[in-house]
Amino acid sequence: MKQTIHEVKPDERDQAILVSLVTAEQKRLDDYDPEYSLTELVRLAETAGVEVLGKLTQNKEYTDSKWFVGKGKAAELKDLIAETGANTAIFDQELSGAQVRNLEQFLDVKIIDRTQLILDIFAGRAKTREGIIQVELAQLSYLLPRLSGHGKNLSRLGGGIGTRGPGESKLETDRRHIRGRIDELKRQLHEVVRHRSLHRERRKETGVYQVALVGYTNAGKSTLLRQLTDSDVLVENQLFATLDPTSRSLTLPSGVDIVLTDTVGFIQNLPHELVAAFRATLEEANEADLILHVVDSSSEMMTIQMKVVDQVLEELGAHGKERVTVFNKIDMCPPEQVDMLTTEGEFLRISAYREADLQRVLETIESKLMGDSRTFRIPAEKGDMISLVYRIGEVLENEVDGDDMLMRVRLNNKEYQKMGYMLAAYDSARQAQGEARGETTEHV
Protein backbone atom coordinates (compact mmCIF):
# COMPACT_ATOMS: atom_id res chain seq x y z
CA MET A 1 0.00 0.00 0.00
CA LYS A 2 1.31 3.40 -0.92
CA GLN A 3 2.25 5.51 2.11
CA THR A 4 1.54 9.20 2.34
CA ILE A 5 4.21 11.67 3.38
CA HIS A 6 3.45 13.66 6.51
CA GLU A 7 4.51 17.20 5.55
CA VAL A 8 6.00 19.42 8.26
CA LYS A 9 5.30 23.12 8.06
CA PRO A 10 8.29 25.42 8.62
CA ASP A 11 6.73 26.84 11.78
CA GLU A 12 5.67 23.48 13.19
CA ARG A 13 7.74 22.36 16.17
CA ASP A 14 9.27 18.90 16.00
CA GLN A 15 7.59 16.44 18.34
CA ALA A 16 9.63 13.31 18.88
CA ILE A 17 9.80 9.87 20.38
CA LEU A 18 13.30 9.03 21.65
CA VAL A 19 14.59 5.52 21.03
CA SER A 20 17.53 3.74 22.67
CA LEU A 21 18.90 0.29 21.90
CA VAL A 22 21.12 -1.30 24.55
CA THR A 23 23.24 -4.13 23.17
CA ALA A 24 25.27 -6.76 25.01
CA GLU A 25 28.47 -5.07 23.81
CA GLN A 26 27.43 -1.75 25.34
CA LYS A 27 26.62 -3.40 28.67
CA ARG A 28 30.21 -4.62 28.87
CA LEU A 29 31.56 -1.06 28.71
CA ASP A 30 32.49 0.37 32.12
CA ASP A 31 31.85 3.99 31.16
CA TYR A 32 28.49 3.52 29.40
CA ASP A 33 25.24 4.18 31.24
CA PRO A 34 22.24 3.76 28.89
CA GLU A 35 19.88 5.57 31.23
CA TYR A 36 22.19 8.58 31.47
CA SER A 37 22.77 8.56 27.71
CA LEU A 38 19.01 8.65 27.09
CA THR A 39 18.59 11.44 29.66
CA GLU A 40 21.29 13.37 27.85
CA LEU A 41 19.49 12.75 24.56
CA VAL A 42 16.40 14.41 26.09
CA ARG A 43 18.49 17.49 26.89
CA LEU A 44 19.98 17.49 23.39
CA ALA A 45 16.52 17.30 21.87
CA GLU A 46 15.25 20.15 24.05
CA THR A 47 18.33 22.20 23.15
CA ALA A 48 17.42 21.69 19.47
CA GLY A 49 13.89 22.94 20.14
CA VAL A 50 12.23 19.52 20.03
CA GLU A 51 9.27 18.58 22.21
CA VAL A 52 9.82 15.07 23.61
CA LEU A 53 6.56 13.10 23.69
CA GLY A 54 7.90 9.75 24.82
CA LYS A 55 10.84 7.35 25.19
CA LEU A 56 11.32 3.77 24.09
CA THR A 57 14.14 1.43 25.14
CA GLN A 58 15.05 -2.06 23.95
CA ASN A 59 17.63 -4.53 25.26
CA LYS A 60 18.98 -6.73 22.48
CA GLU A 61 22.07 -8.83 21.85
CA TYR A 62 22.97 -6.89 18.70
CA THR A 63 21.54 -4.29 16.32
CA ASP A 64 19.19 -5.30 13.52
CA SER A 65 20.82 -4.57 10.16
CA LYS A 66 17.49 -3.57 8.63
CA TRP A 67 15.54 -1.86 11.41
CA PHE A 68 18.30 -1.16 13.98
CA VAL A 69 15.80 -2.18 16.69
CA GLY A 70 13.88 -5.45 16.35
CA LYS A 71 10.92 -5.64 13.99
CA GLY A 72 8.55 -6.02 16.93
CA LYS A 73 9.98 -2.93 18.67
CA ALA A 74 9.69 -0.99 15.39
CA ALA A 75 5.99 -1.91 15.28
CA GLU A 76 5.64 -0.78 18.91
CA LEU A 77 7.32 2.49 17.99
CA LYS A 78 4.87 2.95 15.11
CA ASP A 79 1.93 2.52 17.47
CA LEU A 80 3.42 5.02 19.94
CA ILE A 81 3.92 7.55 17.15
CA ALA A 82 0.31 7.15 16.05
CA GLU A 83 -0.88 7.48 19.64
CA THR A 84 1.10 10.63 20.44
CA GLY A 85 1.03 12.30 17.03
CA ALA A 86 4.84 12.57 16.92
CA ASN A 87 6.42 13.58 13.62
CA THR A 88 10.00 12.57 14.42
CA ALA A 89 11.88 9.59 15.89
CA ILE A 90 15.29 10.31 17.39
CA PHE A 91 17.66 7.39 18.00
CA ASP A 92 20.36 7.52 20.67
CA GLN A 93 22.84 5.68 18.46
CA GLU A 94 24.14 6.26 14.95
CA LEU A 95 22.11 4.74 12.10
CA SER A 96 23.18 3.61 8.64
CA GLY A 97 21.62 5.07 5.51
CA ALA A 98 19.70 1.83 4.86
CA GLN A 99 18.31 1.78 8.39
CA VAL A 100 17.15 5.38 8.07
CA ARG A 101 15.45 4.61 4.74
CA ASN A 102 13.71 1.49 6.07
CA LEU A 103 12.51 3.21 9.24
CA GLU A 104 11.24 6.24 7.33
CA GLN A 105 9.23 4.06 4.97
CA PHE A 106 7.81 1.98 7.81
CA LEU A 107 7.12 4.74 10.35
CA ASP A 108 6.31 7.59 7.95
CA VAL A 109 8.12 10.16 10.14
CA LYS A 110 11.46 11.92 10.05
CA ILE A 111 14.33 9.80 11.42
CA ILE A 112 17.21 11.48 13.25
CA ASP A 113 20.11 9.83 15.06
CA ARG A 114 22.25 11.20 17.90
CA THR A 115 25.05 12.35 15.61
CA GLN A 116 22.76 14.29 13.29
CA LEU A 117 21.01 15.88 16.28
CA ILE A 118 24.33 17.17 17.66
CA LEU A 119 25.34 18.40 14.21
CA ASP A 120 22.03 20.22 13.95
CA ILE A 121 22.57 21.97 17.29
CA PHE A 122 26.02 23.02 16.17
CA ALA A 123 24.58 24.38 12.91
CA GLY A 124 22.22 26.59 14.88
CA ARG A 125 24.99 27.84 17.19
CA ALA A 126 27.81 28.57 14.72
CA LYS A 127 28.22 32.33 14.31
CA THR A 128 31.73 32.94 12.99
CA ARG A 129 32.88 32.11 9.47
CA GLU A 130 35.17 29.44 10.89
CA GLY A 131 32.40 27.81 12.90
CA ILE A 132 29.98 27.81 9.95
CA ILE A 133 32.59 26.20 7.68
CA GLN A 134 33.40 23.54 10.25
CA VAL A 135 29.76 22.65 10.87
CA GLU A 136 28.90 22.40 7.18
CA LEU A 137 31.96 20.23 6.56
CA ALA A 138 30.95 17.93 9.43
CA GLN A 139 27.36 17.71 8.17
CA LEU A 140 28.34 16.92 4.60
CA SER A 141 30.94 14.35 5.71
CA TYR A 142 28.23 12.66 7.79
CA LEU A 143 25.52 12.81 5.13
CA LEU A 144 27.52 11.85 2.03
CA PRO A 145 27.43 8.06 2.65
CA ARG A 146 23.79 8.32 3.80
CA LEU A 147 22.21 10.33 0.98
CA SER A 148 19.97 7.49 -0.11
CA GLY A 149 18.59 7.19 3.40
CA HIS A 150 17.58 10.79 3.96
CA GLY A 151 14.96 11.45 1.32
CA LYS A 152 12.29 12.54 3.79
CA ASN A 153 14.67 14.83 5.69
CA LEU A 154 15.98 16.51 2.57
CA SER A 155 12.52 17.20 1.20
CA ARG A 156 11.73 19.36 4.24
CA LEU A 157 13.79 22.47 3.80
CA GLY A 158 13.22 24.62 6.88
CA GLY A 159 11.23 21.87 8.55
CA GLY A 160 12.99 21.72 11.92
CA ILE A 161 15.87 19.55 13.13
CA GLY A 162 17.96 17.75 10.57
CA THR A 163 17.44 20.43 7.92
CA ARG A 164 19.60 23.32 9.13
CA GLY A 165 23.00 24.03 7.61
CA PRO A 166 23.88 22.95 4.08
CA GLY A 167 20.28 23.00 2.83
CA GLU A 168 18.29 21.17 0.21
CA SER A 169 20.05 22.60 -2.86
CA LYS A 170 23.40 21.15 -1.82
CA LEU A 171 22.24 17.83 -0.41
CA GLU A 172 19.95 16.74 -3.23
CA THR A 173 22.56 17.14 -5.95
CA ASP A 174 24.81 14.29 -7.01
CA ARG A 175 27.68 12.94 -4.91
CA ARG A 176 30.30 14.50 -7.15
CA HIS A 177 28.94 17.95 -6.41
CA ILE A 178 28.93 17.25 -2.67
CA ARG A 179 32.48 15.92 -2.76
CA GLY A 180 33.48 19.08 -4.58
CA ARG A 181 31.85 21.17 -1.87
CA ILE A 182 33.66 19.16 0.81
CA ASP A 183 36.99 19.77 -0.95
CA GLU A 184 36.23 23.50 -1.12
CA LEU A 185 35.33 23.62 2.59
CA LYS A 186 38.53 21.77 3.48
CA ARG A 187 40.49 24.33 1.47
CA GLN A 188 38.78 27.18 3.32
CA LEU A 189 39.34 25.45 6.65
CA HIS A 190 43.02 24.98 5.78
CA GLU A 191 43.28 28.76 5.41
CA VAL A 192 41.59 29.19 8.80
CA VAL A 193 44.06 26.77 10.38
CA ARG A 194 46.96 28.63 8.76
CA HIS A 195 45.76 32.00 10.08
CA ARG A 196 45.14 30.55 13.53
CA SER A 197 48.64 29.06 13.56
CA LEU A 198 50.09 32.46 12.66
CA HIS A 199 48.22 34.06 15.55
CA ARG A 200 49.55 31.37 17.90
CA GLU A 201 53.11 31.97 16.71
CA ARG A 202 52.73 35.72 17.27
CA ARG A 203 51.45 35.11 20.77
CA LYS A 204 54.41 32.84 21.46
CA GLU A 205 56.82 35.47 20.16
CA THR A 206 55.37 38.06 22.52
CA GLY A 207 55.67 35.60 25.40
CA VAL A 208 51.97 35.80 26.30
CA TYR A 209 50.80 32.79 28.29
CA GLN A 210 47.79 30.85 27.01
CA VAL A 211 45.34 29.05 29.28
CA ALA A 212 42.50 26.90 27.87
CA LEU A 213 39.24 26.03 29.58
CA VAL A 214 38.08 22.55 28.60
CA GLY A 215 35.33 20.35 29.94
CA TYR A 216 32.05 18.60 29.36
CA THR A 217 29.31 20.74 27.89
CA ASN A 218 27.45 22.81 30.51
CA ALA A 219 30.21 22.35 33.10
CA GLY A 220 30.40 26.13 33.62
CA LYS A 221 33.39 27.06 31.44
CA SER A 222 31.75 30.18 29.97
CA THR A 223 30.57 31.28 33.41
CA LEU A 224 34.11 30.93 34.77
CA LEU A 225 35.52 32.88 31.80
CA ARG A 226 32.98 35.66 32.31
CA GLN A 227 33.53 35.88 36.06
CA LEU A 228 37.34 35.88 35.79
CA THR A 229 37.58 38.40 32.95
CA ASP A 230 34.46 40.48 33.67
CA SER A 231 33.40 40.02 30.04
CA ASP A 232 30.03 39.75 28.27
CA VAL A 233 30.35 36.06 27.33
CA LEU A 234 27.03 34.27 26.69
CA VAL A 235 26.05 32.05 29.62
CA GLU A 236 23.02 29.75 29.40
CA ASN A 237 22.03 26.59 31.25
CA GLN A 238 21.89 24.40 28.15
CA LEU A 239 24.15 22.16 26.08
CA PHE A 240 26.57 23.85 23.66
CA ALA A 241 25.42 27.36 24.63
CA THR A 242 28.69 28.61 23.14
CA LEU A 243 30.23 26.98 20.10
CA ASP A 244 32.93 29.23 18.71
CA PRO A 245 36.03 29.60 20.91
CA THR A 246 36.16 32.80 22.96
CA SER A 247 39.44 34.34 24.12
CA ARG A 248 39.75 37.12 26.68
CA SER A 249 42.66 38.86 28.33
CA LEU A 250 43.12 38.05 32.02
CA THR A 251 45.36 39.91 34.47
CA LEU A 252 46.95 37.79 37.19
CA PRO A 253 47.54 39.13 40.73
CA SER A 254 51.16 39.88 39.81
CA GLY A 255 50.00 42.13 36.96
CA VAL A 256 50.99 39.69 34.20
CA ASP A 257 48.46 39.52 31.35
CA ILE A 258 47.54 36.12 29.88
CA VAL A 259 45.02 34.88 27.30
CA LEU A 260 42.17 32.72 28.62
CA THR A 261 40.23 30.71 25.99
CA ASP A 262 36.89 28.96 26.38
CA THR A 263 36.67 25.94 24.02
CA VAL A 264 33.62 24.07 22.74
CA GLY A 265 32.14 21.66 25.27
CA PHE A 266 32.73 17.93 24.94
CA ILE A 267 29.99 15.32 25.06
CA GLN A 268 29.65 11.55 25.24
CA ASN A 269 29.96 9.98 21.78
CA LEU A 270 31.06 13.27 20.22
CA PRO A 271 30.70 12.65 16.47
CA HIS A 272 34.01 11.87 14.77
CA GLU A 273 33.04 14.29 12.01
CA LEU A 274 32.94 17.07 14.59
CA VAL A 275 36.25 16.15 16.21
CA ALA A 276 37.85 16.20 12.76
CA ALA A 277 36.19 19.43 11.60
CA PHE A 278 36.76 21.26 14.88
CA ARG A 279 40.36 20.17 15.26
CA ALA A 280 41.54 23.69 14.45
CA THR A 281 39.38 25.06 17.27
CA LEU A 282 40.16 22.32 19.78
CA GLU A 283 43.88 22.68 19.12
CA GLU A 284 43.69 25.79 21.31
CA ALA A 285 43.88 23.27 24.14
CA ASN A 286 46.87 21.56 22.56
CA GLU A 287 48.76 24.85 22.22
CA ALA A 288 47.95 26.14 25.71
CA ASP A 289 50.58 26.50 28.41
CA LEU A 290 48.02 25.33 30.95
CA ILE A 291 44.67 23.52 30.73
CA LEU A 292 41.90 24.09 33.26
CA HIS A 293 39.60 21.06 33.16
CA VAL A 294 36.28 22.42 34.44
CA VAL A 295 34.03 19.74 35.97
CA ASP A 296 30.35 19.94 36.91
CA SER A 297 30.54 18.65 40.49
CA SER A 298 26.76 18.51 40.78
CA SER A 299 26.36 16.03 37.92
CA GLU A 300 25.54 12.44 38.88
CA MET A 301 27.64 11.33 35.88
CA MET A 302 30.68 13.42 36.78
CA THR A 303 33.11 10.47 36.53
CA ILE A 304 31.93 9.50 33.05
CA GLN A 305 32.07 13.13 31.91
CA MET A 306 35.65 13.45 33.13
CA LYS A 307 36.59 10.29 31.21
CA VAL A 308 35.04 11.70 28.02
CA VAL A 309 37.16 14.85 28.34
CA ASP A 310 40.28 12.75 28.93
CA GLN A 311 39.55 10.68 25.81
CA VAL A 312 39.06 13.74 23.58
CA LEU A 313 42.20 15.42 24.92
CA GLU A 314 44.14 12.23 24.26
CA GLU A 315 42.79 12.12 20.71
CA LEU A 316 43.94 15.73 20.23
CA GLY A 317 47.41 14.94 21.59
CA ALA A 318 46.92 17.25 24.59
CA HIS A 319 46.60 14.54 27.24
CA GLY A 320 50.06 15.16 28.70
CA LYS A 321 49.64 18.93 29.01
CA GLU A 322 50.03 20.72 32.34
CA ARG A 323 46.55 20.58 33.83
CA VAL A 324 44.52 21.64 36.86
CA THR A 325 41.11 20.07 37.52
CA VAL A 326 38.54 22.66 38.62
CA PHE A 327 35.56 21.06 40.40
CA ASN A 328 32.93 23.73 39.71
CA LYS A 329 29.38 24.23 41.08
CA ILE A 330 30.22 23.09 44.62
CA ASP A 331 27.50 25.49 45.82
CA MET A 332 25.03 22.99 44.31
CA CYS A 333 26.47 20.01 46.23
CA PRO A 334 25.98 18.87 49.84
CA PRO A 335 29.08 19.34 52.07
CA GLU A 336 29.78 15.60 52.31
CA GLN A 337 29.84 15.35 48.50
CA VAL A 338 32.23 18.30 48.21
CA ASP A 339 34.69 16.62 50.59
CA MET A 340 34.80 13.59 48.27
CA LEU A 341 35.79 15.60 45.20
CA THR A 342 39.33 14.55 44.42
CA THR A 343 41.47 13.38 41.52
CA GLU A 344 45.07 12.75 40.56
CA GLY A 345 47.17 15.86 40.15
CA GLU A 346 46.35 19.37 41.30
CA PHE A 347 42.69 20.30 41.73
CA LEU A 348 40.45 23.04 43.08
CA ARG A 349 36.91 22.97 44.49
CA ILE A 350 35.10 26.17 43.59
CA SER A 351 31.92 28.01 42.77
CA ALA A 352 32.40 30.41 39.85
CA TYR A 353 30.16 32.89 41.71
CA ARG A 354 32.34 33.17 44.83
CA GLU A 355 34.96 35.92 44.77
CA ALA A 356 37.29 34.04 47.13
CA ASP A 357 37.20 30.97 44.90
CA LEU A 358 37.95 33.05 41.79
CA GLN A 359 40.97 34.50 43.60
CA ARG A 360 42.19 30.96 44.32
CA VAL A 361 41.85 30.11 40.64
CA LEU A 362 43.94 33.16 39.70
CA GLU A 363 46.60 32.29 42.28
CA THR A 364 46.76 28.69 41.03
CA ILE A 365 47.11 29.81 37.41
CA GLU A 366 49.86 32.20 38.41
CA SER A 367 51.68 29.54 40.44
CA LYS A 368 51.52 27.07 37.55
CA LEU A 369 52.64 29.56 34.91
CA MET A 370 55.10 31.66 36.85
CA GLY A 371 56.73 28.87 38.85
CA ASP A 372 59.24 29.25 41.68
CA SER A 373 61.47 32.21 42.42
CA ARG A 374 65.15 32.35 41.48
CA THR A 375 67.79 34.99 42.22
CA PHE A 376 69.96 36.31 39.38
CA ARG A 377 73.10 38.47 39.45
CA ILE A 378 73.05 40.61 36.31
CA PRO A 379 75.71 43.19 35.35
CA ALA A 380 74.15 46.65 35.76
CA GLU A 381 75.27 47.70 32.27
CA LYS A 382 73.15 44.96 30.71
CA GLY A 383 69.99 47.08 30.64
CA ASP A 384 68.40 44.97 27.92
CA MET A 385 68.83 41.85 30.06
CA ILE A 386 67.29 43.53 33.10
CA SER A 387 64.39 44.67 30.92
CA LEU A 388 63.93 41.09 29.72
CA VAL A 389 63.69 39.84 33.30
CA TYR A 390 60.89 42.31 34.02
CA ARG A 391 59.09 41.31 30.82
CA ILE A 392 59.06 37.52 31.27
CA GLY A 393 58.88 37.16 35.04
CA GLU A 394 57.64 38.75 38.25
CA VAL A 395 60.46 40.62 40.01
CA LEU A 396 59.94 40.06 43.72
CA GLU A 397 63.06 41.86 44.98
CA ASN A 398 66.01 43.70 43.47
CA GLU A 399 69.03 45.48 44.92
CA VAL A 400 72.31 46.93 43.72
CA ASP A 401 75.49 45.06 44.71
CA GLY A 402 78.54 46.86 43.35
CA ASP A 403 78.37 46.72 39.56
CA ASP A 404 75.61 44.12 39.58
CA MET A 405 71.87 43.89 40.13
CA LEU A 406 70.61 41.13 42.43
CA MET A 407 67.10 40.23 41.27
CA ARG A 408 64.79 37.65 42.84
CA VAL A 409 62.42 36.63 40.09
CA ARG A 410 59.47 34.26 39.82
CA LEU A 411 59.21 32.54 36.44
CA ASN A 412 58.35 29.08 35.19
CA ASN A 413 60.76 26.51 33.80
CA LYS A 414 59.92 27.30 30.17
CA GLU A 415 60.77 30.98 30.60
CA TYR A 416 63.77 30.09 32.74
CA GLN A 417 65.15 28.00 29.90
CA LYS A 418 64.45 30.80 27.41
CA MET A 419 66.17 33.26 29.69
CA GLY A 420 69.14 30.96 30.19
CA TYR A 421 69.52 30.68 26.42
CA MET A 422 69.21 34.40 25.76
CA LEU A 423 71.46 35.40 28.66
CA ALA A 424 74.07 32.66 28.27
CA ALA A 425 76.97 35.06 27.69
CA TYR A 426 77.83 35.85 31.29
CA ASP A 427 81.18 36.46 32.99
CA SER A 428 82.53 33.16 34.36
CA ALA A 429 85.13 35.02 36.35
CA ARG A 430 82.37 36.97 38.13
CA GLN A 431 80.57 33.72 38.89
CA ALA A 432 83.78 32.27 40.33
CA GLN A 433 84.23 35.37 42.46
CA GLY A 434 80.67 35.10 43.70
CA GLU A 435 81.14 31.45 44.62
CA ALA A 436 84.31 32.39 46.47
CA ARG A 437 82.22 34.84 48.52
CA GLY A 438 79.78 32.01 49.28
CA GLU A 439 76.96 33.39 47.09
CA THR A 440 74.39 31.02 45.60
CA THR A 441 72.93 33.39 43.05
CA GLU A 442 72.81 32.59 39.35
CA HIS A 443 75.15 34.80 37.34
CA VAL A 444 74.24 36.28 33.98
Automatic annotation (TrEMBL):
<dbReference type="Pfam" id="PF01926">
    <property type="entry name" value="MMR_HSR1"/>
</dbReference>
<keyword id="KW-0479">Metal-binding</keyword>
<dbReference type="Pfam" id="PF16360">
    <property type="entry name" value="GTP-bdg_M"/>
</dbReference>
<comment type="function">
    <text>GTPase that associates with the 50S ribosomal subunit and may have a role during protein synthesis or ribosome biogenesis.</text>
</comment>
<feature type="binding site">
    <location>
        <position position="222"/>
    </location>
    <ligand>
        <name>Mg(2+)</name>
    </ligand>
</feature>
<dbReference type="InterPro" id="IPR025121">
    <property type="entry name" value="GTPase_HflX_N"/>
</dbReference>
<keyword id="KW-0460">Magnesium</keyword>
<dbReference type="GO" id="GO:0005737">
    <property type="term" value="C:cytoplasm"/>
</dbReference>
<dbReference type="GO" id="GO:0003924">
    <property type="term" value="F:GTPase activity"/>
</dbReference>
<dbReference type="GO" id="GO:0043022">
    <property type="term" value="F:ribosome binding"/>
</dbReference>
<feature type="binding site">
    <location>
        <begin position="328"/>
        <end position="331"/>
    </location>
    <ligand>
        <name>GTP</name>
    </ligand>
</feature>
<feature type="binding site">
    <location>
        <begin position="262"/>
        <end position="265"/>
    </location>
    <ligand>
        <name>GTP</name>
    </ligand>
</feature>
<keyword id="KW-0547">Nucleotide-binding</keyword>
<dbReference type="InterPro" id="IPR027417">
    <property type="entry name" value="P-loop_NTPase"/>
</dbReference>
<protein>
    <recommendedName>
        <fullName>GTPase HflX</fullName>
    </recommendedName>
</protein>
<feature type="binding site">
    <location>
        <begin position="215"/>
        <end position="222"/>
    </location>
    <ligand>
        <name>GTP</name>
    </ligand>
</feature>
<dbReference type="InterPro" id="IPR042108">
    <property type="entry name" value="GTPase_HflX_N_sf"/>
</dbReference>
<feature type="binding site">
    <location>
        <begin position="240"/>
        <end position="244"/>
    </location>
    <ligand>
        <name>GTP</name>
    </ligand>
</feature>
<dbReference type="InterPro" id="IPR030394">
    <property type="entry name" value="G_HFLX_dom"/>
</dbReference>
<feature type="binding site">
    <location>
        <position position="242"/>
    </location>
    <ligand>
        <name>Mg(2+)</name>
    </ligand>
</feature>
<feature type="binding site">
    <location>
        <begin position="351"/>
        <end position="353"/>
    </location>
    <ligand>
        <name>GTP</name>
    </ligand>
</feature>
<dbReference type="InterPro" id="IPR032305">
    <property type="entry name" value="GTP-bd_M"/>
</dbReference>
<dbReference type="GO" id="GO:0046872">
    <property type="term" value="F:metal ion binding"/>
</dbReference>
<dbReference type="GO" id="GO:0005525">
    <property type="term" value="F:GTP binding"/>
</dbReference>
<feature type="domain" description="Hflx-type G">
    <location>
        <begin position="209"/>
        <end position="373"/>
    </location>
</feature>
<keyword id="KW-0963">Cytoplasm</keyword>
<dbReference type="Pfam" id="PF13167">
    <property type="entry name" value="GTP-bdg_N"/>
</dbReference>
<comment type="similarity">
    <text>Belongs to the TRAFAC class OBG-HflX-like GTPase superfamily. HflX GTPase family.</text>
</comment>
<dbReference type="InterPro" id="IPR006073">
    <property type="entry name" value="GTP-bd"/>
</dbReference>
<dbReference type="InterPro" id="IPR016496">
    <property type="entry name" value="GTPase_HflX"/>
</dbReference>
<comment type="subunit">
    <text>Monomer. Associates with the 50S ribosomal subunit.</text>
</comment>
<keyword id="KW-0342">GTP-binding</keyword>
